[in-house]
Amino acid sequence: MTRLHFASALLPSGWANDVQVIVTASTIEAVTPGVAPAAGDERHQIALPGLASLHSHAFQRGMAGLAELRGDSTDTFWTWRETMYRFALAMTPDDVAAVATLLYVEMLEQGFTRVGEFHYLHHDRDGTAYADIAEMASRIAQAAEASGIALTLLPSFYAHGSFGGAPPHAGQRRFICSVDQFAALMAASHKTIAKLPGANIGIAPHSLRAVAPDELAAIIPFADRGPVHIHAAEQVKEVEDCLAWSGKRPVQWLLEHAPVDQRWCIIHATHTTDAEVTAFAKTGAVAGLCPITEASLGDGIFPARQFFDAGGSFGVGTDSNVLIGVTDELRQLEYGQRLKHRARNVLSSGAGRSTGRTLFDHALAGGAQALAQAKVGLTPGARADIVTLDAAHPSLAGRAHDAIIDGWIFAAGSRAVDCVWAGGAKVVEGGQHELRQSARERFNAAVRRLVT
Ligand code: ZN
Predict the structure, then answer these.
(1) Catalytic residue among 319, 385, 390, 406
(2) If you measure from the C-alpha of residue 223 to the centroid of ligand 1, how many angstroms do you get, rounded to a whole number?
(3) Rounded Cα–Cα distance for residues 118 and 124 (Å)
């Protein structure tokens, strides 16, 4: 049992002072506000719940910063994707484990305590399945276990190179499954995560480019009652290709043809019309926004204000993992809207309400829903995923309650994170994960070989 005491803590009911939290094994057992610290309590100043990065492709952390050279034509997502394919084609299972372990260490150091791993690098370098078809998924699970981050594994179904069932091209060979292979992959993936603390599983039909309608219908039952994640409407070209194929836009097609409900998370949904935004919000599905990646890839800006006004839910994901940060994702989300609308505090929930708090609350709730977590936050019965901030950070000085969150997101940034408990274990102290050094060495060795 661990007894913690916080001068100030963000609870589901709002901020409270002098809060004692009792953790037993991986779970919060009791939360008592308004009590003086007792002998034996570990004392900290400011506590927040950990957030989820609801959308990650772990292996892409290895190529972060390697696609920043201008191509010979108008450089877009599609040239970045060629770099990503070259990198993906070279990685061994050991490389994936090394890259994912440091990525998850970095996520925890930033205050992400759960990751939704949209996992599509399945097969050996020649495209044949490993003897254990979930070999790569097992390396992701190892990385989660070593780092302490909670994993929602989302094995991805990927079958085609474009809309209309076009054959995949050679660069996609490690991603490709038949429906029967995917059934085997799901069964093996269930076994892989069965003993992993805090883990659960869903499915990830990659996109309407990569999954034909009959295949989508065939694989949805594999989710059982778990989450269903799909990329949609990230790029203008994708929207144009979808219109040419079906006469519908990607989000429109999904809402008309797939059983989209609260278990679903539509990743990006960047290019959506007002009618799509309204209909999407009504389904109760989560928008999986990845603001840093969407900016990095030049995707565009999600109509977040309209989606909020329509009652939509969203969470954030680090996606390509080019930069890892809770504050970076939330700040970029708001700043994109400010640039688009030429206004300030666009995503605040109302006059006099903190923008940072609105963003944080949405990301906590939307991330939990998208990764099928019934209970999150500093509350009895939730997994003990707790983040403390350094109250001595200059950008937090003299702040209380919501002003702390605003100071963290908009001014202090990642270096204000002090300690992180993941499933009751204190894995980050003084801003540093206990595995940082060894994970960096292993990552660097893998990436040096892959880059040369
Ligand atoms: Zn993605």
Answers:
(1) 319
(2) 19
(3) 18
* N- to C-terminal Cα separation, the chain: 48
> 160, 268, 271, 393: which is the annotated catalytic residue?
268
Contact present, 168 and 176 (Cβ < 8 Å): yes
Please indicate whether residue 319 is annotated as part of the active site: yes
Per-residue confidence at 83, pLDDT binned at 50, 70, 90? confident
Nearest to 306 by CA among 268, 267, 347: 347
Ion ligand 1: protein residues whose beta carbon lies under 5 Å: 319
Q: Tell me if residue 231 is catalytic.
A: no
This prediction's pTM: 0.97
Question: Would 436 be classed as within a structural domain?
Answer: no
Total domains in the fold of the chain:
2
Helix H or strand E segment including 445:
helix 436-451
**Is residue 409 assigned to a domain?**
yes
Domain around 71: 59-370
Question: Whose CA is closest to 418, among 438, 396, 386, 388?
Answer: 388
Handedness of CA 69, 74, 76, 81 (dihedral sign): negative
* CATH code (residue 281): 3.20.20.140
Q: How far is the CA of 350 from the centre of ligand 1 (A)?
A: 31
Condensed to tens digits (0 to 9), the pLDDT of residues 28-44 reads 999 999 999 999 999 99
